[in-house]
Design a protein that fits this description.
Blueprint: E1 7-8, E2 20-21, E3 24-34, H1 40-51, H2 61-87, H3 96-116, E4 120-129, H4 133-142, E5 145-152, H5 159-174, E6 181-184, H6 192-207, E7 215-221, H7 225-229, H8 234-249, E8 256-261, H9 274-283, E9 288-292, H10 301-317, E10 322-325, H11 333-346
Helix pairs in contact: 1-2, 3-11, 4-5, 6-8, 6-11, 9-10
Length: 355
């Protein structure tokens, strides 16, 4: 969150010395991004930035950009804008992802302030859209952050999420005359407190149901299968996340399925596809399922519209009767506890030990 300026001058400085901010440690949370609005031009700007990222679409630029700029961006902003409009936070005129990320940042900032006072500054940025990584890094440097811990809010590592977020952070650092020391938080999918937060979210929803779902589906964002074959660890980390969740819940094998959503383009992506799998379950006679999204730290278009819309409809159209969506961890207390613990572990040596 924004902090008051700490610019000042010490007695040891000569009179003509420029102001120097009091040194502090910055904690920068980073999420995927959001358009500024659901109108055509806001959506076009956002989609152009997102789909031009070589980490996301790695086709040769000469081949991909003409298709993107003349075909895809002529039509997709309308359909994507309609999807965003269906979930938009009209009261604050922003996407749910932005609303939730603000709440997460405020909760982490409160916890860190209680522990370290004004020695820390907590902010958030978006890889695509606003607030941009560049602008927030600049604000933190101006406020005296000589050290920045960068926290990509992706529990599992993927080149198209974690790596591109890191790329943008490093590009922002390249523009700084005096670069702050920096650290990047690694994927935290197997951290016990993250797994605990996931398990509690499932238990909380199940406790409020009058009948237990016959199957839990953990739906992760998809990626081309080719990326797995090239060495991206995302698929394996998703599989392990599901296993750790099942073990923490104490459930039998076969009680949770791992699937992948948001397929884009003509090539094969990681399987099974969520939308096909839930329909298959319904055709097999399963009438009640629950779906969770462990790869998303906050509810967004892929969960609120895709899972609760397209995927729910696929299940019900195939004969399913009850579809229970388990919200993302968002700013739930166990999630904030997990994040602040992970942050503290990665701050080792940067802040005085608490007495």
């Amino acid at each position: 969150m924004n902090q008051p300026s700490t610019l000042g001058r010490t007695d040891a400085m000569p009179a003509d010395h420029p102001p120097v901010a009091k040194p502090r440690v910055g904690i920068l949370l980073a999420n995927l991004g959001t358009p500024d609005g659901y109108d055509y031009w806001s959506m076009r700007r956002y989609l152009s930035e997102f789909l031009s990222d070589k980490r996301v679409i790695d086709y040769p630029r000469w081949k991909w950009q003409p298709i993107l700029q003349t075909v895809i961006l002529a039509k997709r902003p309308f359909s994507s804008g309609a999807n965003y409009k269906s979930i938009w936070n009209e009261e604050l005129n922003e996407s749910p992802l932005l609303t939730i990320t603000k709440r997460q940042t405020a909760a982490v900032a409160k916890a860190m302030s209680e522990r370290h006072g004004d020695k820390v500054m907590v902010e958030f940025c978006m890889r695509y859209g606003n607030p941009s990584v560049d602008s927030v890094v600049q604000r933190m440097v101006d406020a005296g952050c000589t050290r920045i811990l960068y926290v990509p809010l992706y529990p599992q590592y993927a080149g198209a999420t974690s790596a591109t977020a890191n790329d943008q952070f490093f590009r922002a650092l390249m523009k700084q005359f005096r670069q702050p020391a920096s650290r990047v938080v690694d994927a935290y999918f197997e951290h016990p407190l993250y797994v605990e937060a996931l398990a509690q979210s499932v238990e909380r929803v199940y406790a409020g149901l009058d009948a237990r779902p016959e199957r839990l589906i953990t739906s992760y964002h998809g990626m081309p299968k080719r990326y797995l074959m090239q060495g991206d660890p995302y698929h394996c980390q998703c599989q392990k996340t599901t296993r750790l969740l099942r073990e923490r819940l104490g459930w039998d094998k076969g009680s949770i399925d791992t699937t992948f959503q948001s397929v884009f383009g003509p090539e094969e992506w990681l399987r099974p596809y969520t939308v096909e799998h839930v329909a298959d379950l319904a055709r097999q006679g399963i009438r009640h399922i629950a779906v969770a999204s462990p790869a998303f730290s906050a509810d967004c278009i892929e969960t609120l519209e895709e899972i609760n819309g397209e995927i729910r409809e696929a299940f019900e159209h195939a004969g399913g009767e009850r579809f229970t969506y388990i919200p993302c961890l968002n700013d739930d207390a166990p999630h904030i506890t997990a994040l602040t613990t992970i942050i503290e572990e990665n701050l080792g040596g940067w802040l005085p030990a608490r007495g």
